[in-house]
Design brief:
about 0% helix, mainly beta
């Protein structure tokens, strides 16, 4: 299965009001998401922090894809995240 909403358009982009349908916020590319009991720094080598979300790349976003949006790392939902919005495959 793959995240049906990851490539559905800007209204489902990371950071949008609907982003939780297709994307999981993994952490900050440059610091910590507050509040946390320990740092959640994803770092620039986390397989996404150097790949900004772009509307022109929608067709390439599938389960497990990682992108940066507003200095945060997001991952397209997959079975790992038990997404109720995945397409039947």
């Amino acid at each position: 299965a793959y995240g049906a909403y990851c490539n559905a358009g800007p209204e489902y982009a990371p950071g949008s009001p609907n982003s939780d349908r297709g994307w999981v916020k993994l952490g900050s590319c440059f610091g910590t998401i507050a509040p946390t009991s320990s740092p959640t720094h994803a770092g620039p080598d986390s397989g996404g922090c150097n790949h900004p979300w772009r509307e022109s790349d929608l067709e390439s976003y599938a389960a497990g894809a990682r992108v940066e949006y507003n200095q945060f790392l997001f991952e397209c939902k997959s079975d790992v995240h038990l997404s109720k919005y995945c397409k039947d495959g």
